[in-house]
Structure formats: C-alpha cells, structure tokens
Design goal:
The complex is a heterodimer of chains A (38) and B (207).
Chain A lengths: L4 H33 L1
Chain B lengths: L1 H20 L12 H28 L2 H33 L7 H21 L3 H15 L2 H10 L14 H38 L1
Helix pairs in contact in B: 1-7, 2-3, 2-5, 2-7, 3-4, 3-5, 3-7, 4-5, 4-6
The chains are: A mainly alpha (38), B mainly alpha (207).
Chain lengths: 38, 207
C-alpha cells in the first residue's frame, strides 16, 4: 500500500503518543507508591 | 483499568480510522472531517455531563475525589470542544463558504467551549475549599448548555444539511468505532488527571 510521508508521520506519532500515555501512567503509579510508603 | 481502557481506545481509534479512510471514505475528501467532528462533539457533551455529576456529588458529599473527577472531565472536554469548533469551522468553509454563521448549533457549541474555558480560568484563580465549591457550582451552571446543544442539533433547522446519512455500512461502523475510541480516550485522560490531582494533594498535605 503506497503511503505518503504525512501518513507515515501520523502513524508513528499516533503510536508514540499512546506509548507515552502508557508509560506516564506507570510513572504516576511509582510516584503514588512512594507517597503511600512514607 | 487505565491500561485496559488505553489499549481499548487505541484499538478502537486505530481500527475506526482504518475503516474510515479505506472502505468508509467519503467523497469529497473534506467531508471525511465528519469522522473527527462527530466523535469530538459527542465526547465533549459526555464530559460536560460527567462534570455535572462530579459537581453535584462534590456539593453533596464534600469528598475531594468528585472535585478531581469534575476538573479532569473539564480538561478532557475542553480539548474535544476545541477540536469540535475548529473542525466545524474548517468544514463550514469548505462546504458552505463561511467560517462561521450565528446558527443555533454553532452558537451553542461555541458556548460550550467558552464555558469549559471559564471553568478552567476560575479553577486556576481560586484556591483551597473555596475553589472546589465555586468550581462545582460553575460546573452545574455550565452543564445547562448540554440540552441546548442537543435540541439545536435535533430540532432546529440551521446551515447543517438536514437528514444527513452515510451510504455504506463501513462508514457507520467506522464512525461508531471512532466515537467509542474517543470516549475511551477521554476516560483515560480523566483517570490519569485524577491520579495527578491525588498526588498533588498528597504533596500539599505532606508539606
């Protein structure tokens, strides 16, 4: 399937954004756990 | 739960966009903006209903979690309301040669955006328990716009084409997947935001 550069950039940024949300949630869980133990 | 919602929203949005841009493609090309416009509209209205629920529950129970829920919903709803209005202007220019016209649906949608903005400005300029009470009352007043948007969309004739319908099942299913994906993404944003509010409040208590 032929794809434009714009489409490729969109797909990459789409995947990166969801990965970012996934990892930010993990980070928030770690921070929250630190407060729970203090 | 957040991770599950995130993965589901990714699946629905990716699948929806694949369907909408391949078998569900609408002609002319600019009309494909409806696949962004309609899910944003529905999600922004659902977020405002969530603000109403959170605000009423906060005033009733005085529990912070409801204030966090309302504020998180406002932030998510604000983004979708912005997308709604911008895509609406782009579509209006391409289809009807005007960026804006004072019809009921456009005015009520713009009002929705301004109400979200007003809540956010109010929230950032107040502090403590007063902030929570004032924001809760503002949230309840702001949600009065939701029936106006729905009534203007259903019953009042305006520049929007009456009786619009798709031609193929792919288009309907693509739109449905995008609506579901947008709602799931908004819920992920709200849950992450609530978590951030909780951590912030712990930091302030710890100090």
């Amino acid at each position: 399937m032929k794809m434009s550069y714009f489409a490729v950039a969109f797909i990459i940024s789409w995947v990166v954004y969801f990965a970012y949300l996934f990892f930010i949630d993990r980070k928030l869980t770690k921070i929250n756990r630190r407060f729970e133990t203090k | 739960m957040r991770k599950v919602l995130l993965i589901l929203s990714f699946i629905f949005l990716t699948g929806g966009w694949t369907i909408c841009l391949l078998p569900g493609r609408v002609e002319p090309a600019v009309r494909n903006i409806i696949y962004v416009h309609v899910p944003s509209a529905i999600t922004s209205l659902v977020c405002m209903v969530a603000v109403l629920i959170g605000s009423i529950q906060y005033l009733r129970t005085k529990k912070d979690k409801w204030d966090f829920f309302a504020a998180g919903s406002v932030e998510a709803g604000f983004i979708f309301a912005t997308v709604l209005n911008i895509t609406g202007c782009i579509f209006a220019k391409a289809e009807w040669e005007v960026w804006w016209t004072p019809s009921a649906r456009l005015v009520s949608s713009a009002t929705l955006w301004f109400l979200y903005t007003a809540y956010l400005i109010l929230r950032s300029n107040t502090a403590g328990k007063l902030r929570k009470k004032v924001c809760a009352v503002t949230g309840i007043i702001a949600s009065v716009d939701v029936p106006f948007v729905l009534i203007s969309a259903r019953f009042i004739r305006d520049i929007h084409q009456p009786g619009f319908s798709f031609e193929t099942g792919w288009q309907y299913s693509g739109l449905a997947m995008l609506i579901a994906g947008s709602l799931l993404l908004a819920s992920v944003w709200v849950l992450v935001r609530i978590r951030i509010f909780r951590i912030e409040s712990k930091i302030y208590d710890y100090k």
